[in-house]
Design brief:
This protein is an alpha/beta fold and 639 residues long. It is 54% helix and 15% strand. Strands 9-10-12-13-14-15-16-17 form an 8-stranded mixed barrel, surrounded by 6 helices. The structure holds ligand C2E and calcium ion (CA) (2 copies).
């Protein structure tokens, strides 16, 4: 073998490759046991480590078989050399692809550089594979004599390394500079090691030198912002977990702990709770990962494949929780679910949980099932439709249906007023009732636009019926207190009524009392402003909350609507009846008209009439009907 071998491969000591392989194993152990966000770049990174591991193994095989070339089939020497070199090229190519993703090299020159590197890689692999046949590189001649042709490795290596440096330097502005510097510096250490190695005729540390940039990448990019005290990672990590679960067709268990008292700005987890969270998330499920999803919300996930007995484990956890819970004295809600194909993104899960939570009592546990998902999907669908309705701003949107409930006027014994009640009619769900969608519309700031549509349709109905000769004193429309805060509320309302050309007095607005002082001030201001135009005002649902008479008197309502609960109460005992009768009398004496809602039976009617009723509304007369059918109740003006 002699001098040539020494010249070509230098002094080889397996220690370098053993260290490289061991380091790769350490990487794998760390990666397996820490939660790393499951991004595409992370998968590439794992491949880099794996490739380096392979390279170290085959370098070992190659060098050892070369040393004992007389004792092994030559094919092993050739093949291990090819794999060894190709793995190192591949590692560099993967570093380049990794850089392409992280630095978002798109249509620009960056992409061309990457393609060039791939072409060089392809040619290099071809050369390495053909070399033994044509005697281009390593040759094992007769009597196991070793000789060399042209070694392509340093050329390809240099080219690919320069490509990496080029990309890093040219596109450095695209990521946080500290990260670029960190990776560049670690790459320089690699070159330093290789340089020192060639100077001393060594070839033991070639593979090991590939690992330094990987250290930098793992540490600077993929290490996680754990909350060191409770061990939770953030929502971004959850987003990537869900992507990973769906892409790989996995099934994960998700457990959410919601602590409403910690769901406030600036709340900190008490020490005891942190300790408990650490214990619970670490002790029970294999590979459990904890996510901090939002205020007071922690989510524990675990791969079901790794926790075959998860049902028992969950039960044990819950029992344990039940025992410990009194210690913390914090309200909670616990949700348990599996990942499902029907949900796509992390947002879907978070929204589903939020939705399910809103239906739960505190200090309960709920297992998410198909029904919850159905309901949630329906909820999303309705919300999307509502959003669309409001975005389109079409005052005639056919999805919004106005029903009306005629109201009996006691003095005239005729129906001359009515209440407009909204429904929405959607393709997938059919007709939806206000209890379902009004809270949604309020929550998502969609209520005002909806009200304008209802108001417009109501005005149009009043106009057309009046034109046909019907006598309509007025129709009332429900408005949410929230809406009054909307900028331009009065202007928008006035504008819609004005456009229809009917007198303002034909429209009334129903409002419910609100507890807050600021709501009250706003309500007062808006009522006063709109009353100037002639719009009438009803106080809705009187008797359902804590009424503040002083405030009610300050607001210029025209009609007080006594809630059905008052009607029911008055028919059950005499004391209540007296109280309701007194209240009604008091309002009448002060020039408010009293309307009773929810009159269902002749007995109800009789009671209400005795108790100063001016108007009666309820199923006894009519259920809410499509507004076109008001013509069945209202009478034509006698001219
Ligand atoms: P509300 O304003 O108190 O409306 C009266 C509700 O009682 C209506 O339910 C009506 O169908 C029902 N009702 C009428 N007569 C009787 C009766 O004799 N017995 C019983 N048990 N119930 C009766 P609906 O239409 O489902 O409306 C529910 C609530 O939705 C309304 O309560 C109101 O708060 C809200 N809402 C309806 N339409 C609108 C709207 O256009 N805008 C806003 N912001 N809220 C609306
Ligand atoms: Ca009402
Ligand atoms: Ca009411």
């Amino acid at each position: 073998m002699g001098d040539l071998t020494v010249y070509y491969y230098g002094n080889y000591n397996p220690i370098g490759d053993i260290l490289a392989a061991a380091t790769c194993i350490v990487f794998f152990v760390l990666m397996h046991n820490s939660y790393i966000v499951r991004t595409d770049t992370y998968s590439l990174f794992r491949r880099i480590i794996f490739t380096i591991f392979l390279a170290s193994a085959f370098s070992l095989v190659f060098h050892l078989t070369l040393k004992h070339v007389d004792q092994v089939p030559h094919i092993i020497v050739y093949v291990s050399l090819i794999i060894y070199h190709v793995c190192l090229y591949a590692a560099l190519i993967l570093y380049i692809l990794y850089g392409r993703l992280q630095l978002r090299l798109g249509r620009d020159t960056g992409k061309r550089v990457v393609i060039l590197a791939m072409v060089v890689f392809g040619l290099a692999v071809l050369y390495e594979c053909l070399a033994p046949f044509f005697g281009w590189g390593l040759r094992i001649g007769e009597k196991n004599l070793i000789s060399y042709g042209f070694n392509i490795f340093p050329v390809v290596y240099t080219f690919l390394c320069l490509t990496i440096i080029y990309i890093l330097v040219v596109y450095r502005k695209r990521i946080y500079h500290q990260i670029v510097y960190g990776i560049l510096f670690c790459s320089l250490v690699s070159f330093g090691v290789l340089y020192a190695q060639t100077r001393t005729d060594e070839s033991s540390f070639t593979v090991f030198s590939f690992i330094f940039p990987a250290f930098a990448i793992l540490y600077m990019i993929h290490s996680n912002p754990y909350d060191l005290e409770i061990g939770a990672v953030d929502t971004f990590a959850f987003e990537k977990l869900i992507e990973f679960v769906h892409k790989r067709d996995k099934e994960y268990l998700l457990m959410e702990l919601y602590l409403p008292e910690l769901d406030v700005e600036g709340a900190v987890y008490p020490e005891q709770v942190k300790e408990a969270v650490r214990r619970f998330s670490g002790e029970y499920l294999k590979g459990g990962t904890l996510f901090q999803i939002g205020g007071g919300t922690l989510l524990l996930s675990a791969d079901i494949a790794r926790n075959g007995n998860y049902e028992q484990v969950v039960n044990r956890m819950l029992n344990h929780f039940e025992e410990e819970y009194p210690k913390y004295n914090l309200d909670y809600k616990i949700l348990i679910s599996k990942t499902m194909k029907r949900l796509e993104t992390d947002k879907d899960y978070i929204n589903l949980f939020t939705y399910a939570k809103s239906k739960m009592e505190v200090n309960t546990v709920h297992f998410i099932d198909d029904k919850d998902v159905d309901e949630y999907h329906k909820h999303r669908y309705i919300l999307n439709e509502l959003t669309d309705i409001c975005k389109k701003k079409n005052l005639n949107d056919p999805r919004v249906e106005v029903f009306c409930q005629p109201v009996l006027n006691i003095e005239t014994k005729k129906y001359d007023t009515a209440e407009a009640l909204v429904r929405i009619n959607l393709q997938e769900t059919g007709r939806v009732f206000p209890d379902t969608f009004i809270p949604m519309a309020e929550q998502h700031g969609l209520i005002h636009q909806l009200s304008l549509i209802i108001l417009h349709k109501t005005c149009e109905q009043i106009r057309s019926m009046t034109e046909e000769g019907y006598h309509i004193q007025r129709i009332s429309v429900n408005i949410s207190a929230l809406e009054l805060r909307e900028e331009g509320f009065c202007k928008d309302v006035s504008e819609v009524i004005r456009q229809s050309g009917i007198p303002f007095g034909k429209v009334a607005i129903e409002l419910t009392e609100s507890q807050s002082e600021s709501d009250f001030m706003i309500m007062k201001q808006k009522i006063e402003e709109l009353k100037e135009n002639g719009i009438k005002f009803y106080l809705d649902d009187f008797g359902t909350g804590y009424s503040n008479f002083e405030r009610i008197m300050e607001l210029p309502f025209d009609i007080i609507k006594f809630d059905r609960s008052m009607v029911i109460a008055s028919s059950t005992d005499e004391k209540s009846e007296q109280m309701v009768a007194h209240l009604a009398k008091m309002f009448s004496d002060m020039n408010y008209s009293v309307l009773y809602e929810g009159v269902e039976t002749p007995a109800d009617e009789e009671n209400c009439v005795r108790m100063n009723a001016k108007y009666l509304q309820g199923y006894k007369y009519s259920r809410p009907i499509p507004m076109e059918r008001l013509t069945d109740y209202f009478e034509k003006e006698v001219s």
